[in-house]
UniProtKB/TrEMBL annotation, chain A:
Residues 561-570 have a biased composition (Acidic residues). Residues 460-472 have a biased composition (Polar residues). Residues 125-137, 478-488, 584-597 have a biased composition (Basic and acidic residues). It is found in: Cytoplasm, Cytosol. InterPro entries: FAD/NAD-bd_sf (IPR036188), GDP_dissociation_inhibitor (IPR018203), Rab_escort (IPR001738), RAE1_2_domI_C (IPR054420). GO terms for cellular component: cytosol; Rab-protein geranylgeranyltransferase complex. The keyword Ubl conjugation does not apply. This is Rab proteins geranylgeranyltransferase component A. It comes from Trichogramma kaykai. Belongs to the Rab GDI family. Residues 485-529 form the RAE1/2 domain. Signal peptide: none annotated.
TrEMBL record, chain B:
It comes from Trichogramma kaykai. This is small monomeric GTPase. One of its GO terms (cellular component) is early endosome. Gene3D superfamilies: P-loop containing nucleotide triphosphate hydrolases. It comes from the Eukaryota.
Length: 597, 213
């Protein structure tokens, strides 16, 4: 049974991905009547974050939906044409899921006994898992059952992205006052792989000067270079004659030492040998610009995952009157001439001025190209960080290709503090441009940093290590212990993170294009792109909004609760003991007044 | 998420301020917004339209030792077609699940919302059940005893309320305020740590002081 929706709208948005949600919020914010649909029962589409159970369900739905194909013969008026929507799932490919640990019953008894005695030494910060007695014995050992049982403690991103502290999205969240709906964590370290070893990149001035691996001369060199990138960006005369040449060529002329060059190329500019000088300088500028605002790296991560952010924009849309309906399919669009007049959904004909559609839902007839830049993704649950640290870290690592045919891989490692996973575990996200399948594309990096082999049943990993990675209290002393056992073998099998579970998948390209003949009031929203941040989605949303409403403000600041005044408000608020809040709500909210006209 | 600080209370004493996120749940038209409006602004509108632009209000309750500031989130109508976003529950320390005593279905739905909260929200969330429209006693279909028994079984606070007459409206918020933990651990409820909110003023100050080694 489907609820009937009102049938007339200014804007209908199909899909709750990032771009769609920003456009929905912006249109609703200026008083347009917005309907926002999604055929899924969750928000975010390909931008979604799932708990472990939700992710499993998502994969099952992919399998069953692939075969689904309904035919529609709607009632049409003269001159109208019906275009059937496409199957949003058909573009996700090469899903490979693997477990590297056992079920509870397969755990050898010896192991269970072992952990029982150990558990008394557990640091006080360790969490208690439910009240089920059977859990006690494996507080430290992860089985398939246990991960499934604790599914709620996972927040796993299909498209993990960071925010530059002064990037488009942060500025938009603040200027629109949507920031209050979300919480963030600063990325605590930017890592780079140098001579086969992971090291932390010094980000701030203080970092640079405290760093012992670079000499004073190198520090000066680095500061000089960074200053010239910062001041004028790629337009600086400093880069004359190099702008369209590879960035690395320019760096070579600066007689930088290998370490400094490495930092600039691989960590700050995140460049490959092919990256142009213009892009390299702009990336560097972007990075440096965002330093010093929040935390000691330029990046922020949304708590509970990237999938929270579209929901924040959806909420604003709803707050300003947008109608929300999940689990509601777009059956197709009704066009007449060069206009889209309505959509058909759940036996209803819903009319519109503008249709904003996520790429997975577009009728194939109006798609010109499905894009080149497809995405390979790998997601791993691991038992320790890729790089030992004194506290739990949120790590970004850019890993450039080792040889021809490989793509640069972006790695984001999340710990329990982001609510990505339970204590004692980490989530590693890998993303790169697709060339073959996700598993093949990422293989060289997985091999480098992770131990993705079946965990032998009778081998006990020293789980204390993972505790030092994650526990805040009492971690220090244990960490020293480990140090003495494994002096330096950073990448040996013993200290490499063990993969407990992995998932590979290929996501569609974001550079999909509408055909020339597509009705001009249909606006296409891309799925997640290959960039590290959300700027692409924000800019696309701005463009779409501008093409719909060229004279209107894009997401002006929403009022704070204190500024909202309701009709006929004179009566003082309730009297509480010592209440002093009366008389503070006087500020007139213009938007609200407009709304009521 | 509870942030703490000290504030000059009107009576001149220094008190601790705890801020809590409180979410409202319940079917459309049971009076969620009306309860909040009564609580925050002291108003009632017989034909209250779905509130636009006002789905986020704050109100302060003073207890003996502490001042409790509620950050109250309304559903903004997203519950109408069963499309409430999970971010709504994130970090919520309290919830009021509202039903209409003149409508049995809304009570049934309220029990589903309670289950939803137990599934989705922080395990330590304080939940109150509000049987609203108590002024319409002659049309009552949900018995007080039935709701009370359900609330007791599930460890919920329970009151029948009327946004129209203001009956029990302040009281239910006060009861929640009293039940919320106000110790140092509050900020860590449900998670091992909380994130930061982004605000305009931040970022002017250099961070050289707290950089890594």
């Amino acid at each position: 049974m489907e609820d009937d929706l009102p049938t007339e709208y200014d804007v209908i948005v199909v899909g709750t991905g990032m771009t769609e949600s920003i456009v929905a919020a912006a249109a609703s914010r200026i008083g347009k009547k917005v309907l926002h649909l999604d055929s899924n029962e969750y928000y975010g589409g390909l931008w979604a974050t799932f708990n472990f159970d939700g992710l499993q369900k998502w994969m099952e739905d992919l399998k069953s939906a692939a075969s689904e194909n309904k035919d529609f013969k709607p009632d049409l008026q003269d001159g109208e044409q019906f275009l059937q929507a496409s199957n949003q799932y058909s573009t996700i490919e090469n899903i490979v899921e693997d477990w590297f640990i056992s079920n509870d019953e397969d755990l050898p008894a010896v192991l269970a006994k072992n952990t029982q005695t150990e558990s008394s030494e557990e640091p006080s910060g360790a969490e208690k898992v439910d009240d089920d007695k059977s859990d006690k014995k494996d507080t430290k050992h992860w089985s398939i059952d246990r991960i499934k049982k604790e599914y709620r403690r996972f927040n796993i991103d299909l498209a993990p992205k960071l925010l530059f502290a002064r990037g488009e999205l942060v500025e938009l969240l603040i200027s629109s006052n949507i920031a209050r709906y979300a919480e963030f964590r600063a990325v605590s370290r930017v890592a780079t792989c140098m001579n086969g070893k992971l090291t932390q990149v010094p980000c701030s001035r203080a970092d640079v000067f405290a760093n012992k691996t670079v000499s004073v001369i190198e520090k000066r060199m680095l500061m000089q270079l960074l200053t010239s990138c910062m001041d004028q960006g790629a337009d600086s005369p400093e880069f004359d004659g190099y702008r369209d040449k590879p960035f690395v060529e320019y760096l070579n002329t600066k007689k930088l030492t290998p370490i400094v060059k490495h930092y600039v190329m691989q960590a700050i500019a995140m460049a490959t040998d092919k990256t142009s000088c213009r892009d390299g300088v702009n990336n560097t500028k972007h990075f440096l610009n965002s330093l010093g605002r929040y935390g000691n790296t330029p990046f922020l991560w949304p708590m509970y995952g990237s999938g929270e952010l579209p929901q924040c924009f959806c909420r604003l849309c709803a707050v300003f009157g947008g109608v929300y309906c999940l689990k509601r399919h777009l059956d197709g669009v009704v066009t007449s001439g060069d206009k889209c007049k309505a959509i058909l959904s759940g036996k209803q004909r819903l009319t519109l001025e503008h249709l904003v559609v996520g790429q997975g839902h577009l009728p194939p007839e109006i798609v010109a190209s499905t894009g080149e830049n497809k995405i390979s993704r790998g997601i791993f649950i691991t038992d320790r960080s890729i790089m030992k640290g004194e506290k739990e870290n949120l790590t970004l690592l850019y890993y450039p290709p080792e040889e021809a045919g490989q793509e640069a891989v972006t790695i984001i490692e999340l710990g329990p503090l982001t609510n990505a996973c339970p204590q004692g575990l980490f989530i590693v996200h890998m993303t790169c441009k697709r060339t073959k399948t996700a598993k093949e594309d990422l293989a060289y990096v997985v091999k480098k940093f992770l131990k993705a082999e079946k965990l032998e049943k009778n081998v006990s990993r020293t789980p204390t290590d993972s505790q030092t990675q994650t526990s805040i209290a009492g971690g220090e002393s244990v960490s020293k212990d480990i140090e003495s056992k494994n002096p330096d073998d950073e990448n040996s099998n013993n200290t490499m993170p063990q993969v407990l579970w992995s998932l590979y998948l290929n996501l569609p390209a974001s550079d999909i294009k509408l055909s020339e003949s597509a009705p001009n009031n249909i606006h296409l929203c891309s799925g997640p792109d290959l960039n590290l941040d959300f700027d692409f989605a924000v800019n696309q949303a701005k463009e779409i909004f501008k093409s719909m409403y060229p004279d209107e403000d894009f997401l002006p600041r929403a009022p704070d609760p204190e500024e909202i005044i309701l009709e006929g408000e004179e009566a003082p608020g309730p009297k509480f003991e010592g209440d002093n809040s009366n008389g503070e709500n006087e500020k007139q909210d213009n938007e609200k007044a407009e709304k009521e006209e | 998420m509870a942030s703490r600080g000290t504030a000059q209370r009107p009576n001149g004493t220094q008190g601790k301020i705890c801020q809590f996120k409180l979410v409202l749940l319940g079917e459309s038209a049971v009076g969620k917004s009306s309860l909040v409006l009564r609580f925050v602004k002291g108003q009632f509108h017989e034909y209250q339209e779905s509130t636009i632009g006002a789905a986020f209000l704050t109100q302060t309750v003073c207890l003996e030792e502490t001042t409790v500031k509620f950050e109250i989130w309304d559903t903004a109508g997203q519950e109408r077609y069963h499309s409430l976003a999970p971010m709504y529950y994130r970090g919520a320390q309290a919830a009021i699940v509202v039903y209409d005593i003149t409508n049995q279905d809304t009570f049934t739905r309220a029990t589903t919302w309670v289950k939803e909260l137990q599934r989705q929200a922080s395990p330590s969330i304080v939940i109150a059940l509000a049987g609203n429209k108590a002024d319409l006693g002659n049309k009552r279909v949900v018995e007080y005893e039935e709701a009370q028994a359900y609330a007791e079984e599930n460890g919920l606070l329970f009151m029948e309320t009327s946004a129209k007459t203001a009956m029990n409206v302040n009281d239910i918020f006060l009861a929640i305020a009293k039940k919320l933990p106000k110790n140092e651990q509050t900020g860590n409820a449900g998670t091992s740590g909380q994130g930061r909110r982004l605000v305009e003023s931040e970022g002017q100050k250099p961070t050289s002081g707290n950089c890594c080694k």
